Amino acid sequence: MSRLIAIDGPSGSGKSTTAKLLARRLGLGYLDTGAMYRAATTEYLRRYPDGGAGQAEIVDVVATCELVAETSPDSPSFRINGTDVTEEIREPRISAAVSTLATILEVRRLLTERMRGIIEEHDRDIVVEGRDITTVVAPDADVRVLLVADPEARVARRAAEVAGKASAAEVTDQVLRRDRDDSTVSNFTDAAEGVTVIDSTFLAPDEVVERIVELLLHR
């Protein structure tokens, strides 16, 4: 029996922390789909350093790059055309540009196909987190969760993650603007039918994991 778990939510809601803890506990793979967009953005900025390419050029970047995701929850990593970009994709310049790619529907379609391929490679035994996983990438997942949190909590969490790498204003922009931009092509604020909403504002990561494990046990 498969254990495909899909987790959606806005930036800073705790998706990555929860998904990694959950994957470790259950012995599953882990896929951060937002990092796939970041990896593709890294390649885009390498080819077009000024960021001035049109949609057709951006789609070509995504269609032709070799993107490899290592799905161990203990050491998730990403390579583009053979180069490890795991650290680079977290740089502020990538955060500032990623919505440029993520809001192009053809880019989303191309990356969704790759995500589904990774899911099948794991025989559907994987925790996948991102923006529209419960509705587009894996609407047939065994457990589907929308993880939410208050904006203040989300900004504070992201600030802790990038401490020393971005100013407070940059962090706020990354969290709130990215959500606003991505909401034009993805609904990650309203739960679809069959999706369980978990508010992580006042919950520890382990408590969120426990709730999802219960959902899996009682599916």
Structure explained in plain terms:
- By secondary structure, this protein is α/β, with parallel strands linked by helices.
- It has one domain (5-217): Rossmann fold (3-Layer(aba) Sandwich).
- Helices cover 50% and strands 15% of the residues.
- The chain contains 9 helices and 8 strands.
- It has helices at 15-26, 33-47, 55-64, 92-102, 105-121, 133-137, 151-161, 168-182, 205-217, and strands at 5-8, 29-32, 67-70, 77-80, 83-84, 126-130, 143-148, 196-199.
- The strands form 2 sheets. Strands 2-6-1-7-8 form a 5-stranded parallel β-sheet, with helices on both faces.
- Strand 3 (67-70) and strand 4 form a beta hairpin.
- The longest helix has 17 residues, at 105-121.
- The chain is globular and about 50 Å long.
- The chain starts with a strand and ends with a helix.
- 42% of the residues are buried.
- The model has no long low-confidence stretch (mean pLDDT 92).
Strand content: 15-25%
Low-pLDDT windows of residues: none
Q: What overall form do the CA principal axes indicate?
A: globular
Mean pLDDT: 92
Helix content: 40-55%
CATH topology: Rossmann fold
The secondary-structure class comes to alpha/beta
Which CATH architecture is right?
Answer: 3-Layer(aba) Sandwich
Please write out the topology:
Elements: E1 5-8, H1 15-26, E2 29-32, H2 33-47, H3 55-64, E3 67-70, E4 77-80, E5 83-84, H4 92-102, H5 105-121, E6 126-130, H6 133-137, E7 143-148, H7 151-161, H8 168-182, E8 196-199, H9 205-217
Parallel strand pairs: 1-6, 1-7, 2-6, 7-8
Antiparallel strand pairs: 3-4, 4-5
Helix pairs in contact: 1-9, 2-4, 3-5, 4-8, 7-8
